[in-house]
Structure formats: C-alpha cells, structure tokens
Amino acid sequence: MFSFLQEYLKYIQISIFIIGIIYLYLNKELIITYIYPITLLFAGGLSNILDRFIHGAVVDYIYWHCGFDFAIFNLADILIDLAIALIFYINYKKSKQNT
Q1: Using CA atoms, how far apart are residues 75 and 3, in angstroms rounded to an integer?
Q2: 51 catalytic residue (yes or no)
Q3: Residue of 52, 27, 48, 44 whose CA lies nearest to 85
Q4: Which residues contact 12 (CB under 8 A, 6 or more apart)?
Q5: Termini Cα distance of the chain
Q6: Cβ neighbours of residue 65 closer than 8 Å, sequence gap 6 or more
Q7: Widest CA span in the chain
Q8: What is the per-residue DSSP string for 59-70?
Q9: Is 77 a catalytic residue?
Q10: Residues 3-54: pLDDT tens digits?
C-alpha cells in the first residue's frame, strides 16, 4: 500500500507523528483521559517509522492462520489496534456514565 510513496512515506509518517504531538500539547486534557492508548499508539507508530528507516519498509513477521490465511503483521500493528480498541472502550465507558 502506498508503494509509490516508498521514499517519502517515512517523512510523511514523521510529520503525522509531530502533528499528533502538537495536537496533544494543545489539548492536554486528552493526555489524562487517553494516556494508555496514546502511549501504545505512539510506540507502534515509532516502531513503524524506525522499521522504515532501518529496513526501508515495515517488517511483518507474525503469520496468523487458523485453517485459513488471515494476516501477516507485526507487534506495532498489534499495539496500534490495541490503542484503538482502548479508545473505543474508554469512549463507551464515558457514554454509559453520562446516561
């Protein structure tokens, strides 16, 4: 995906990462609410950026299959997915408290 941006993708990712840091700096209350998802998301994102600088691409090394081919992914993908799931869970919990 986005193979036509091969050379520039790492710099685009760094820009997005910096924009995320600036956004969180300007909205500090989000850090308190979402500290764990933010940590996981940034760890996964930094890992992917590091892979792009070291290997030229993100290295996938976990092949999961249960009688069918499902996916090949890496730890950074798991961290990012877990962060998104935590954000959904926190928002769900907040919505239940408000009703």
Answers
A1: 21
A2: no
A3: 44
A4: 5
A5: 41
A6: none
A7: 49
A8: PP-EEEESSSEE
A9: yes
A10: 777 778 889 889 999 999 999 999 999 999 999 999 999 999 998 888 888 8
pLDDT digits (tens, 9 = 90+) for 44-90: 999 888 888 887 777 777 666 677 676 777 888 889 999 999 999 99
**Backbone torsions φ then ψ of 7, nearest 5 degrees:** -70, -30
Catalytic residue among 51, 69, 77, 81: 77
Residue identified by tokens 């499902």 is 70
Query: What are the boundaries of each domain within the chain?
Result: 3-98
Structure tokens at 99: 């009703």
Among the listed residues 51, 60, 69, 81, the single catalytic one is: 60
**DSSP string computed for 3-50:** GGGTTTHHHHHHHHHHHHHHHHHHTHHHHHHTHHHHHHHHHHHHHHHH
Contact present, 47 and 7 (Cβ < 8 Å): no
